[in-house]
Amino acid sequence: xxxxxxxxxxxxxxxxxxxxxxxxxxxxxxxxxxxxxxxxxxxxxxxxxxxxxxxxxxxxxxxxxxxxxxxxxxx
Length: 75
What we know:
With 75 residues, the protein is mostly helical. It is 88% helix and 0% strand.
């Protein structure tokens, strides 16, 4: 004789909620692992790009100032 496991609507809803919590926990755990193993490299690369951008802006700004000063001297 075979008996089937019957789940009520409330139990089904609770089980679905439990699965969602497990998936959320796995997602958060994966994010933490990525941050732990690759976070320093990601932050380093972001900082390096920011410094390069700042240096480029400084070079552009200083070349504009040099051009303006040269034009004033020539007048």
